[in-house]
Amino acid sequence: MTYEVDHRKPRPKRRGRRIVLTLVSVVAVIVVGALVAGMWYLNSLSSAYEDNAQTFEESFPEEEGRPVKAEDDESINILLLGSDENGGSGESEDLPRVPQGGRSDTMMLMHVPSDRDSVQIMSIPRDLWVEVPGQGQHKINAALSLGGLPLTIDTIESLFDARIDHVAAVDMLGFTGLVDSLGGVTVNSSYDQPFTTAEDFTFQPGEQEMTSEEALSFVRHRQSFPDGDLQRVRNQQAFIQAVIDQTVTPSNLSNPGRVRDLVETFSPHVIVDDTLDSGAVASLGWNLRGAVNNVDFFTVPTGESSYSDDGQWIFYQDEQAMADISEALADSTLDEYAASR
Q1: In a domain, 210, yes or no
Q2: Phi, psi angle pair for 281, to nearest 5°
Q3: Minimum mean pLDDT range among 35-44, 121-130, 148-157, 232-241
Q4: pLDDT higher for 275 or 138?
Q5: Is the bond leading into 99 cis (omega within 30 degrees of zero)?
Q6: Domain membership of residue 60 as a residue range
Q7: In terms of Cα–Cα distance, which of 84, 165, 79 is closest to 122?
Q8: Which of 142, 164, 264, 294 could bridge 118 with an S-S bond, Cβ 3.0-4.6 Å?
Q9: For the chain, how many structural domains are there in total?
Q10: What is the pLDDT of residue 268?
Q11: Is residue 164 in some structural domain?
Q12: What sequence ranges are listed for the domain Cell envelope-related transcriptional attenuator (predicted)?
């Protein structure tokens, strides 16, 4: 099939704007699961999105040839994207950006198992060398610029032989807004040495308090790390986990006004596919209310690193890991795979 990129800014659709909890991007479904436990103020939260949330004009590839789930498979896969359009890779970018035609610089697959007892968030390294359908071999983050969201979804579905049910994107500034609302966030840095970013913030190993400016610098930085983007992915995961932990607290969830404030802070930075309507999100959130404390983060294992024939730095695939992940997604046992990492 042929993919053409539409570089026009996506137009808001009223159908998509009434998404009661578009926190459904990384922090999203997890936080939503707890928030909608208070279903009695659901309509109030919905109105908070009326003028903010947007939907993609075009999301999914043509149906022919896409993976088909087994009849008893009730798992849900949500692709989470950020783009480096309007900013290059490295210190200057606000990650993840809402993709509109650039390269997808941040890419995560959120898997909700059939039993709804947990959530797995799998980061996909942007430098992973893959077959982009109809385009040959490229870094996986090139699919967005080569064919927009449909080709990006086609590429990931082909890679893991797993169907993508929804797609969402969130600007990292949405998370930093939450950090301001929370009065700071405590993030656990997994890097075993201190490092200093271009903004002149120094981070130590282990837990530390961060302002929104410090947190944004923390998730952008990669120059200090021998494995570059892989450690940055780990930092992003640590930050997201911290925001989840400090947003979904009894004091926040028991205060409708507080929840509404958090929702209004986050929603302008989210864009989703038009199948992720308020009913779908509310239903999923309610079913996930017990999974808030059972979120697993991991990164797709890679093979050797090298240069491509055209001089790009790339990671080759770990073929066994790809096969294991594909099987776990098909069996809805990705939680077991994540626990083994």
Answers
A1: no
A2: -70, -45
A3: 35-44
A4: 138
A5: no
A6: 14-176+266-340
A7: 79
A8: 294
A9: 1
A10: 72
A11: yes
A12: 103-247
